[in-house]
Batch of 2 targets.
Target 1
Amino acid sequence: MSERVIAPKSRGFLFLDSHPGGCRQVVDDMWQAVPAPVAPGGEGPVALVIGSSAGYGLAATIAGLARIGIRGIGVCFEKAPARRTGTAGWYRTAATARLARQHGRDMVFLNGDAFGDAMKEEVADLLAERFGGRLDYLIYSVAAPRRTDPDTGEVYASVLKPVGSSYTTKTLVFDQDGAPEVKEVTTAPAEGDDIEQTVAVMGGTDWERWVTFLADRSLLAEGFTTAALSYIGSPLTAAIYRQGTIGAAKSHLEATARTLDERLGKTLGGRAVTSVNAAAVTQSSTAIPGIALYVGLLRGVLGDGMIAPIGQLVQLWDQLTGARSLDLDDEGRVRLDTWELDPTVQNAVAERWSTATSDSITDLADLGWFSDEVRRLYGFSVPGIDYTAAVETDVSWPAPTA
Ligand SMILES: NC(=O)c1ccc[n+]([C@@H]2O[C@H](COP(=O)([O-])OP(=O)(O)OC[C@H]3O[C@@H](n4cnc5c(N)ncnc54)[C@H](O)[C@@H]3O)[C@@H](O)[C@H]2O)c1
């Protein structure tokens, strides 16, 4: 037992501790935001979500459980409580498992490196032993800085750099007193094998390896469907995102979807797609130069008109399961970002972006919302939580229920 009061301590957008009570409430609130199940009762389809503890993968897990009644496996990479608290994803996973159990859904969570073959073996064994040896859905939502190649042991590192020439962008930071500043930062262009390294981490290689691994073990059901998360984003961030090193990885991911789609279509009557989602405040996205400013301005323009990840993932599940027809763009991608890329919205954001300064930013962007979103990633600024009360931090990883 280890009860204590947890104060938010941060360096930039990174917090050193997370709040178990707040993380649990975030998960509860996401579950509440899901509309009624499509087909209540009965045994749901078997799903594997990779990256299940945060951002879009957490939304995929919760929307899948609450809307579709999935059962299956979530995989993520989180740190247990020790001297510091556990990571927020540790606590969110405990909370998600509790809700799954309450709703009679058999969901097992595994903590470890999804890129390694040991995790693939463990998942394959679990599918065979516990889930009837048939996987219906795989959602791939990993965002990671590094990947170790299981064949060679080589470690690849992903970088966020423009391609061709350096890129100067406005960016949003908060000073020591929390006051917002709009600054310029310059990022040098990719050099050496930066592009290949980033593609090796964030492209489609590991997704394809998962599908091949499970197919070789005959664990994919007829009609097996898989989706990986992608992003296009605004012209304002294109140089650092879609035309940058990470964009090369996303193009690789999308090309992988086309190859996999053909293969799965022929072998199982199955499908592989990418799902292009909208900008959201996550631990990964706040690391991208300019994205904090962009998202804050987007919220300033759209307010509650922004669709949160949980709402987008309900739409994705509805399309994947056939509750709604699968709506693909010319390049075979599900598009859940059309509201973000709407030209009227983009023009309004671009106008605000061009005039944004440290003095005007509070009027142009919704900074209260943005700061709270960042804090909520760690379980802080969650309505209904008493942050002066001591809370148990020693939460154990959810054991599979019998
Ligand atoms: N955040 C956005 O604005 C946005 C928009 C559109 C698409 N996407 C895409 O969604 C996907 C997920 O991004 P996010 O922003 O939700 O990220 P995130 O940082 O919120 O979550 C990443 C998840 O990956 C897991 N993970 C990281 N390394 C792992 C490893 N080695 N093994 C197992 N699990 C690991 C983490 O535990 C976590 O569950 C990415 O493909 C991203 O490009 C993000």
Target 2
Amino acid sequence: MIQKREAHELPSALKQFNELKAHFNNKIPAVFLDYDGCLTPIVQRPEMAILSDEMREALHKLASVTKVAVVSGRDRQNVAELVKLDNLYYAGSHGFDITGPGAMASEPGGAKAALPALDKADLVLQEKLKEIAGSLVERKRYAIAVHFRNVADDQVEQVRKVVDEVLSSMPELKIGHGKKIYELKPNMDWHKGKAVLWLMEELGLNNANYLPLYIGDDITDEDAFAALQEQGIGILVGEHDDKTAATYRLESVDDVLIFLNSLTDTIKAQGHG
Ligand SMILES: O=P(O)(O)OC[C@H]1O[C@H](O[C@H]2O[C@H](CO)[C@@H](O)[C@H](O)[C@H]2O)[C@H](O)[C@@H](O)[C@@H]1O
């Protein structure tokens, strides 16, 4: 049974770093990270979320000592272009679209069947939402984010109504939630948690040598925290509107940077890398 707690009840992954490290037990942590709100702060528009040079450097160093994957709700190509590192794995569209070093490319959730519905929904949403100031329709290969961060409070309900209308005629799609977005996703039993487990298997990490560690800030990261609760470590960055299945907490993107650098040093000190 998955244990959930309030974010503020979680121990700090920085202050309790020694305790967290004790879970490694000589295993190498394999690191899975969300992008928005974890590697970059949440900003007004998706294209403004630029990775800092310091964070890129930290990811690059970490990926030289262990496996590192970015598991994002963003389009896979978009997030790979933002991170700009070729020694990482990238899972985009909430894990439906995965690539990595050595020409690894896979779409394990079977979302291709939902492409016609996503294409149609994209057109309808663009048309119906163009009158609502501040709304933004972001098409990813296997998801559509409808952003309302910049929509007036009294218009947000109208955005939701349009999303619900579109979904009501498209059983191939379902709704997802995030920070000031509604998402339309393939109506399939696949999510970030399943993508992480798939990557573990595919990369040969499902053994006594590795410990999965997942860091994320959003409600969609809860599937990954839940999937790893028995066998790994989940770290929530900041908080979201719900309880969490993570086991540790980091306050901010700045803390994620400090944590990743400490992790690299720890893995090196373990004699790996
Ligand atoms: O799984 P993630 O990598 O965290 O992606 C989740 C969504 O992130 C982006 O939207 C969020 O960040 C934007 C920039 O900070 C912000 O403006 C927006 O309000 C947030 O919801 C991205 O645009 C979405 O496609 C992702 O699904």
